[in-house]
Specification:
The protein has 9 helices and 9 strands. It is mainly alpha-helical. The strands form 4 sheets. It has a 3-stranded antiparallel β-sheet with strand order 1-2-3, with no helix packed on it. A two-stranded antiparallel sheet has the order 4-5. Strands 6-9 form a two-stranded parallel ribbon. The radius of gyration is 37 Å and the shape is flat.
Length: 353
C-alpha cells in the first residue's frame, strides 16, 4: 500500500484507505480522525466501481497523480510578483513631481528624535523648545514642491517602461507552456506568427487535449456512465438484457465515444475542403466530422437539411449547386448516375418517408 492505495501483485488497485477528516484540520477528532476507512475499489458481485480515482499515470507503479500545476507553482509566483512590481513602479514613475529650490522656502523635514518631558524635544541631551512642525512632502501626480535653496533632493528615475520586462515575461510563459504541454501562443492567445506557425501550435495543443481527454474519459466519464446506466437498469428504466450477467454484453451496451469540444479553426474553408477529401476517400465519416466540428448528430442534420430543402423547393427558389458537382438534368437524375428501372431500397424508403 502506498499513498492510501492498496494494490495487488499486478499493481491494480484493490482498496482505498481514506481518512474521515483531513489531518491538517485544527479541530481534529482524536477518536476517529486518524483512523482510515478501507473502501474496496470494486463491487465484486456487480462488478461496479466503488471509488473513482482520477489521475494521470506518468510512470510505472504510480498509485496517485500529481497536480497539473504542481511543476509551475514557483514560476507562476515569480511572474506574478514581477508583474505586480512592474505595475507599481510604472505608476510611481508617472507620479514624479517638479522640485525646485528657492531662498526662504520651507526646509525639508527634520528627522524625529522623539519627545521629552513638558512637550519639549531633546537633542544632544539638552532640551529646547519644539520648532513648528515642518511641511510634509509627498509625491503626487502633477504636484510642484518648493524647498529651501540649501536643501537638496535627488530623484532616481525608475526608467519605465522597462524594456526587459516583456522578454522576461515571454520566456517564463514559454517555460510554463512547455511544462504543461501547451504552446506559448495558445497559452497567451497571441497568434502573432505566420499562419503555418499558428496552425502548428493549435494542432500541437489539440493533440495534448485529445490525450488528456482520453485518460480522463477512461478514469471518470466511462465509470460514471457505467454506474448511471446500471442504476437505470436496476430501476427498470432501461431494458438491457445481459447487462449484469455478461461483461462483454455490458461493454456493447456502454459503447460511447467521448469527444468533447472541437478545436479552433483558423481557416474554415480550407479545413472544410480537407474534411471533404477525407470523407470522400472513407478515411473519416460524416458522423465523426460533425461530432468534432459542432458536437451535433450527422443523421439529425440530414433530416433537418431535408426539411429545409423541401421548404426551399416549395417556395420556388433556385437550388444552389457546388462547383464541380453533378448537375441534375430535366429527368431528375444526375448525368453520371446510371439509369435503372428500380430505385434502390434506401431511396425508396426515403421517398415513402
Amino acid at each position: 500500500m502506498a499513498g492510501g492505495v492498496e494494490t495487488d501483485e499486478w499493481g491494480a488497485p484493490v482498496a482505498y484507505h481514506i481518512l474521515k477528516q483531513h489531518p491538517g484540520d485544527l479541530m481534529l477528532r482524536l477518536d476517529d480522525g486518524l483512523i482510515p476507512e478501507r473502501i474496496e475499489a470494486w463491487d465484486r458481485k456487480l462488478a461496479l466501481p466503488r471509488v473513482v480515482h482520477v489521475f494521470k499515470r506518468e510512470r510505472p507503479e504510480q498509485d496517485r497523480g500529481v497536480g497539473m500545476l504542481a511543476t509551475i507553482i514557483e514560476p507562476l509566483k515569480m511572474i506574478s510578483d514581477a508583474s505586480d512590481a512592474e505595475l507599481y513602479a510604472t505608476v510611481m514613475s508617472a507620479m514624479i513631481a517638479v522640485v525646485y529650490k528657492s531662498r526662504g522656502a520651507q526646509p525639508m523635514p527634520e528627522p524625529d528624535y522623539g519627545e521629552g518631558e513638558g512637550g519639549v524635544s531633546v537633542e544632544g541631551g539638552e532640551p529646547y523648545a519644539a520648532a513648528p512642525e515642518p511641511s510634509q512632502y509627498r509625491f503626487e501626480a502633477g504636484s510642484i514642491m518648493e524647498i529651501d535653496s540649501d536643501s537638496d533632493v535627488e530623484i532616481k528615475s525608475p526608467g519605465r517602461p522597462n524594456s526587459a520586462f516583456d522578454p522576461f515575461f515571454q520566456a517564463i510563459v514559454r517555460q510554463i507552456g512547455a511544462a504543461l504541454g501547451i504552446p506559448a501562443g495558445a497559452l497567451m492567445l497571441m497568434f502573432n506568427s505566420s499562419y503555418t506557425a499558428s496552425k502548428a501550435e493549435l494542432e500541437a495543443l489539440y493533440m495534448q487535449v485529445r490525450a488528456d481527454r482520453a485518460w480522463f474519459a477512461s478514469d471518470d466519464c466511462a465509470l460514471t456512465y457505467l454506474c448511471f446506466v446500471a442504476e437505470q437498469v436496476v430501476l427498470g428504466h432501461y431494458v438491457m438484457p445481459g447487462f449484469f450477467s455478461d461483461l462483454r454484453v455490458r461493454a456493447a451496451w456502454l459503447g460511447a465515444n467521448w469527444r468533447g469540444d472541437g478545436k479552433i479553426s483558423l481557416n474554415p474553408l480550407q479545413e472544410a475542403k480537407g474534411f471533404e477529401v477525407q470523407e470522400a476517400h472513407g478515411w473519416r465519416t460524416g458522423e465523426d466530422i460533425t461530432a468534432e466540428l459542432t458536437g451535433g448528430s450527422f443523421r439529425e442534420n440530414i433530416r433537418r437539411r431535408g426539411a429545409e430543402h423541401r421548404a426551399w423547393v416549395a417556395e420556388g427558389l433556385p437550388v444552389p449547386t457546388t462547383a464541380g458537382a453533378a448537375k441534375a438534368p430535366a429527368g431528375g437524375k444526375p448525368d453520371n448516375e446510371p439509369a435503372s428501372d428500380e430505385a434502390p431500397a434506401d431511396k425508396q424508403e426515403n421517398q415513402d418517408a
